[in-house]
From TrEMBL:
Limits of the Arrestin-like N-terminal domain: 62-194
Protein name: Arrestin-like N-terminal domain-containing protein
PANTHER family xrefs: ARRESTIN DOMAIN CONTAINING PROTEIN, FI21816P1
Cellular component, GO annotation: cytoplasm
Pfam families the UniProt entry points to: Arrestin_N
Gene source species: Ceratobasidium theobromae
Gene Ontology process terms (BP): protein transport
Region span, Disordered: 1-39
Amino acid sequence: MAAPSYTDSEHTSPAPPPYPVASTHGGRTPSLPPSGDLPDSYIFRSQRIQLDLGRRVWPVRAPCYGYTDQIGGSVSVTTLEHVKRIDVTVEGIVEALFTERGATVGFERNALFRRLVTLYTQSRPGPGTTTPIPNRSYNYPFSITFPATCDNDTTRLPPSFTSLHGEVRYCIRVEMIRWGLRRRERRVCMTLVVPILYFPRSYTPVSHAQPTLNHETFMLLGDVKDIHLVPRPLSKCEGKCKAHMSADVQAKIMLPLPLVTTSGDHVPFTITIDSQSSALVALYTDITIQHVKIRETKAHERSYVRETLLSYSRVHDAKQMGGGVQVLFGELLIGGVPGAEFSWSARGIMQVRHVIKVSVRPPAGLSTNLSVFEAAIPIVVVSHRRPSRHNLEADVAAPALELTAGRL
């Protein structure tokens, strides 16, 4: 039997999105600097508010943070006259939008998390109340930590992401709420909104080690999973032949546990084809194992699904075990860009998941009365292999900079 050849699929991803510029009353959202113009420090200003997020650490054009990272900075204002409160909010939002002919046909937005810190508060000044000195700079430091998971959920925060129909975005919002000049006047809110990037790393489990590629040892491992492949007839006799064909031939794949891996890992597998007829087993020569990334966006009844083929498998060897049993040995290279591929979900609105697709079938010319066996096996892809204990704490909070290339 000829083993399928291994090829790496090429895939392209869009560049990181230019974050939209949104205006609010009395404030503005500053645009990010060009990618080739990296600032020494991240300082953003509006007419009355300045947000200083400190010196640039990573070679990216926007403030960038990793898993449970801490956002530290300071807010400066030129006056506190008539100011009731100054708030700093860090929030994440997932949003999906579908349009047809310029009209919105599906829209959904959900908050991932929200953290608010009040930097200054003052009750309404009365007669004889001392007012702050005008034309002086007031500085308020703050520190806010990214949570590990979404609010009211156990799902990890997803990375910053944009696609044709959806977006996961994070921002820092500074609001200066002022009293109206007259008691009955509405409060005036001046706002500065700064987009930030969140690129969390994810790691393989503590006890995870890359499985051995020795076939004899692999078959004796305890931490493996047998997955029976579902038969599907190719002919029009589905109703009459399905039960008969399923009994004649059976197929299964064995994979190591846990099904958690990273780009660049080699995942060994065995495929067993079993039948009372050795001649029937020998007909199954078309074996395909694929690593596929699936990106989904949903908004009510609208959805968008895009599949990207990241890699094919290699079958190294085939052994006739006797009694109508054939065992195929191979390995699948987990594809994609190392450090930039991982599984995530955002409130059921957007998600990126990975599967191993398996197909065992006879040649097309011999498939009239034979089944084809298929399965889509979910796997979890993480961005990094767990480092040594000595470097783990430093590495966890570091952002996955590979994501800055937009390869999600």
